[in-house]
């Protein structure tokens, strides 16, 4: 191994100075990410109250680990620098090629659709919670509000115009997801990805129990997953053509429309779309004009939809932004209230006194403000509190109890970045159906099928393979490592950043808005990370020289 490290160091020394410096900087950042964020912080949070000697020992161990991990990553960059995804041999017979593409399109669609239909049959008409019922009520009464994205509610309303039944709307969602999965697999087959890569992609599109659990709900997260799979198709085409695909006006138009959809179907979708277009402006020199046009037209389209169109349907605009963005500070305050109430500032103590009697706190789960948020008057009290005052007493509380505040932040955000997890992260994805005014309920004589499917899901979710499905930190880590390993390849590095950094921006930006471990916000990561990693190692048309194949 020492010989391999020496070869890697020698290879680094042969690179241009600018390339070498950038590689060393990125390798150092990833090393710190692995050691401090993924190893040290979870180790530290296991000790509360935090013992000073324990901290010193762990910190010393982390510093010692930096060197071997850094050298190991350098070796990984060296070994992967020449790797390229193998491609299937071109077919000279147009008929055979057409049949091959049709086969993969049908397989990509059919495998997902049939599997989804099994669950749709068992759990007809689908699952819903209070959010879904509220949106359905809005549609039936033609009274829309922006508490839920009106864009998403209008999509549901469009389907309801065909058949006004919740089950039909869920069916359309499952159908659309299956179709875009087939489109993605077809597109990858067209660009001659190897068979094993197509099968791997299909596996992550269909096999994750979280996918059919989420898609049985008419959540905005479900719609975001559908749009992100479709957008991944466009990213594949852009990458494989060195941007030429986007220069066609028709392709540019659908590209912008899907960007608008991603931005509006979730209020925080812009955390993905705006960084993507800015990075395209910076790193895709061939597409700077298209990126600028996309950014301007996307923002213009969003304004038109959010104002004239929303006004046309009479959408009300309740001011929920402040309440919806204080999940992390509220988690910190709630944790301190439970663990060390004497550390609360006088203003914070008075704030909590308004929320209600102590008996309400029996339902609070540490690090999960969601467990408390919807069953108390907390939102009302927050609305009545001046934002500046709220931030002031939160800062004072953090100053009084820094260790507990750090642990609260860790508990509420670790679902996004940690590669280890707990079963509680699956709790918000259980099949459920609430009492409702439309008599929607599960079919009674299918209880046995539901039990069998739920047992199967639980078996998968409690097996080692679930680390590839339910742990967002694993997906982000794999994307980060793949980006680092392909950075050196000519024409790849900064363009690879354009593929990955928007996902990181969305994940870490949304993390700061969390009220608890809500996996569904990040579900699309688990669906598209595999094709994106494969795409990073695939050809883009530049002269590669001699390449290794994977």
TrEMBL record:
Q: Could you tell me what this protein is called?
A: DUF6020 family protein
Signal peptide region: none
Q: Where are the transmembrane segments?
A: 21-41, 61-80, 101-124, 166-186, 222-240, 252-284, 468-487, 494-514
Name the domain of life.
Answer: Bacteria
Swiss-Prot/TrEMBL keywords: Membrane, Transmembrane, Transmembrane helix
Q: Does the keyword Transmembrane helix apply?
A: yes
Q: Establish whether keyword Zinc is in the entry.
A: no
